[in-house]
Design goal:
The complex is a heterodimer. Chain A folds into 2 domains: 13-131 and 300-330, Isopropylmalate Dehydrogenase, CATH 3.40.718; 134-288, Isopropylmalate Dehydrogenase (3-Layer(aba) Sandwich), CATH 3.40.718.10. Chain A has 12 helices and 11 strands. Chain A has helices at 27-36, 50-59, 85-89, 94-104, 116-127, 162-180, 201-211, 238-262, 267-280, 288-292, 314-330, 332-342, and strands at residues 13-18, 42-48, 68-72, 109-112, 137-141, 150-152, 187-190, 217-221, 233-235, 296-299, 304-307. In chain A, strands 3-2-1-4-11-10-5-6-9-7-8 form an 11-stranded mixed sheet, with helices on both faces. Mean pLDDT of chain A is 88; it is low at 1-7 and 285-290. The termini of chain B are close together. The mean pLDDT of chain B is 91. In chain B, 53% of the residues lie in helices and 0% in strands. Chain B is mainly α. Chain B has a single domain (3-80), classed as ACP-like (Non-ribosomal Peptide Synthetase Peptidyl Carrier Protein, Chain A), CATH 1.10.1200. Chain B has helices spanning 3-15, 35-49, 55-58, 64-74. The chains are: A alpha/beta, B mainly alpha. Chains A and B meet through helix 5 of A and helix 2 of B.
Amino acid sequence: MAENKSIVPNGRIRVAVDAMGGDYAPEEIVKGAVLAAQKDDVEVFLVGTTNILEQELAKCKVTNGSSIHIVGASDVVKENESPVDVIRGKPNCSVAIAAKMVKSGEADALFSAGSSGAAAISAIQFIGMVDGVYRPALVGSLGSFAPNTVMVDLGANVDCKPHQFLTFAVAGAVYAKKFLNIPDPKIALLSTGSEESKGNDAVREAYSLLKSSGLNFVGNIEGSDILNGKANVIVCDGFVGNVLLKFYESIGGHAQVWTERKLKKYPPLRALVRLLFKRLFPSTEISSETEKAGGGILWGVDGVVKIAHGASRAPQIANAIESAKEAVKAGVVESLKLELAKFDQGGKL
Amino acid sequence: MTIEEQIKDILARITRVDKAIITRESTFKEIKADSLDVVQALVAVEETFGIEIPDEDAQKFQNFGDFVSYVESRVPQTEKV
């Protein structure tokens, strides 16, 4: 297979789409792909069961060719299957084939709305990680309340080894520079106290690594500091990050319900509150950018890999494909490699 | 390089642990290898030695020593040197 190459001969970014992954696959995936492929600068490869995909494309009045292509895959990952089994049990499933296309240079990016675990594992095994990175991480901007803050990891790694926190910090810094235009992001470790001795074993060890990394590490912060702008990049394991993400995303809705209840006896004020929440109160979704983009990038993979919620419909699928294309154009993988090279510690990052 | 050393290198590279801590008695848990690490190690060992390790056999490995012994028993004698 050819080496990975990100420059596309015809100027189009090629996105390999796991057409069989997602709650509404393949129908919504194909519809989303058709929407995305209406733009001139993208070419979509729908990977999955050929005859099914042909039928779906026919429903959209689109034929295989030009900017949409079908790539056959003999297997699919089912809902209840262990993602790890993909490697040995289903190396020719749709998401694995899509990953292999990125590795071979036949595609510039992979997108899947199927099992996140299967997508991550396919990416790790069949695309490979950037040198120095152990596992991929999810990075997201907090938006609204803390527009200049990103958090890593948002759920890709439930259990983390200390060196992973260091790569999370680098990925977060690249994200903050690229997408938030922060030239020298302040990086903090989320812990139970500001002192170096606070936190569990992995966090304490990560503190030492970050302190000596040369990154703009400002130490530990606590939960109460997350939204106050003390840090531009907040590093935590995926367990903590995912719990926080979902809590944060729920705040707006709960605040609105609570406020409306309190104003039950004052209908005009209630109406005003509803209006305020709808029009003025910022969304607390952790990243409106992420939502608009239809999912997140798996940072650390040696290629652009975009994953989205399983429940995504065609518009979100189209946005995700568009966003994968933009990530390729922005050179996020190359930027991460450059940043990591600065902090190379003998392959032990 | 012996088969044991080669497998140790593979496991250390995948799990990012210092290979000095891996002994024949080490369990995967002790070297902090999760299920993905183990599967990646199995695939890498299969590719390195040109053998197949069925899941049912791999599930019987209690420690690193079992893994090494299994591979040694499957690799042709000439490659063991």
